[in-house]
Amino acid sequence: MHLALRFSTKQLMPGCVIHSRFNILTSYSTVRFVGNNYRTTNTWRRSCFLSRQPASGTVLSSTVGRTMDEDAEIDSKSSKFPFPQVFLDWLSQNGLDPAIYDAANDLPRYIRLKPGTEEDISSIEDDLGSELSKLSWLPGFYSLPSEVQIASSRSYQEGKIYGMDAASGAAVAALGISPEDHVLDLCAAPGAKLCMLADVLKDSGTLTATDISQHRLAASRTMLIKYGLGSRCRLFLADGTTFSLLPLRHGPKVEEDKPEAGIGEDITRSYGKHTGSVYVNSLVYGEWKGTKTAKEKKAAKRLKYMEDALDRVGGRESELMFYGKDSGIVGMKVVDVFRSSSLREEEAAVDGYDKVLVDAECTHDGSIKHISKYEQWGWDTFERRFFNAERMTSITSLQLQLLRNGFRLLKVGGTLIYSTCSLTVAQNEDVVRNFLRIERNAELREIRDAKNWPCRSGGLPCTVRFDPITSNTSGLFIARIHKLSS
Ligand SMILES: C[S@@+](CC[C@H](N)C(=O)[O-])C[C@H]1O[C@@H](n2cnc3c(N)ncnc32)[C@H](O)[C@@H]1O
């Protein structure tokens, strides 16, 4: 069947694919741009919700396949939620229809199975009291009715399943992890994507994660330990806009100092007047211990003191919150772990990360289910949290800085994914467009798997958008960026 489409050919890139949900996730239709013809196998079920994108944005218009009268109907629609007026105004300014939040209760819940537990699927179904529907487009993911609670289930507590939205899984899949990759997750907490990265890497490569929130990063550490995924990981409490540590491609630099157990104390070098008489050169990391004996606690306290000493001389911008036994840290001197803060571009080009995920801080307006929960928590609380003035004014510049620093740490030939769970153009296409203007050796690349995903094209070539109406998932924007040699 042919559809009347109202966007101009300028708005679509040749080869761009638009998906429309048709009842259930596994059965969606596609509309393809071929020359000047658009074809589909199913009728366009509902209009996209981005009905009033601001003129500056290049996001595909929602007016696809609709008449003017139908658009008028959407424009006058509001949500069933009694949103504060300030939020309605903000949605309007960003071209978003409040009615998208009405989909909150219809969205399925998604889980990811821990690799290797597929044969337990019927016992997991019994435990959850619900059938699981396998997602044909995303390996390891299943959907189930939204009312099923997973956190109290035995399968969850035993680490057989993860609660994770399918769109988040797509962002990780878009990275195209290969065995032996050294991966950086720059905004990692609370760790859903981090765990998937670790599962995909299995027992090869390394995984470095940073986040600026201590309690959220601690939650990520708990997740890694719970699912037995930490052995190749390092977690740093750090600002992702300045983090400068490269992957440990070559293992510990000072093997000969590797202690039998605990933390060594071969003290040889002074940092002079800034630190009093603190000597830190040869203090080396032993194996990570969750629970410690009194002797180990004393040693850990001493290590912390040494790390703080590095802070005082400006040698450390991050705090190591966790490291696994195969992360390369064990046996390293404290100073060596934090040495590379004056990272040189040429060094990163060769020794940088193979893959970087920048799942940036954002306004989270695309987390439909999360926002609907304020129905119970109170809309005053929502307004206070959402419209945190400092956050609102600086969010796009933070996103650009995170993206730029993630790219700086990427090696030439490497892949970076920029994603946010905001539906706005400002936090997605505009940030990427600004970034591409600055970074001449960055190039947007197609996400190959996306042709099978129930997502829409984003407003920049090769970018994609998940949203509740089109994809039956939470909102997520994904851009895949390649680093060329300069
Ligand atoms: C969208 S959440 C990340 C979700 C995470 N990737 C996951 O899958 O569970 C964004 C995170 O960015 C962190 N963040 C905010 N500013 C940051 C900064 N300057 N550096 C690093 N992390 C930052 C927040 O603490 C938050 O945990």
TrEMBL record:
Record field: transmembrane:
none
Q: Which stretches make up the SAM-dependent MTase RsmB/NOP-type domain?
A: 96-484
Q: Matching Pfam families, A to Z?
A: Methyltr_RsmB-F
The alphabetical list of record keywords is: Methyltransferase, RNA-binding, S-adenosyl-L-methionine, Transferase
Q: Which GO terms describe its molecular function?
A: methyltransferase activity; RNA binding
List of residues binding S-adenosyl-L-methionine: D211, D239, D359
Identify which residues the record assigns to the active site: C421 (nucleophile)
- One of the GO biological process terms: methylation
The record ties this protein, via InterPro entries, to: MeTrfase_RsmB-F_NOP2_cat, MeTrfase_RsmB-F_NOP2_dom, RCMT, RCMT_subfamily_9, SAM-dependent_MTases_sf
What family does the Swiss-Prot or TrEMBL record give for this protein?
Answer: Belongs to the class I-like SAM-binding methyltransferase superfamily. RsmB/NOP family.
Protein name as catalogued? SAM-dependent MTase RsmB/NOP-type domain-containing protein
**Species, as recorded:** Riccia sorocarpa
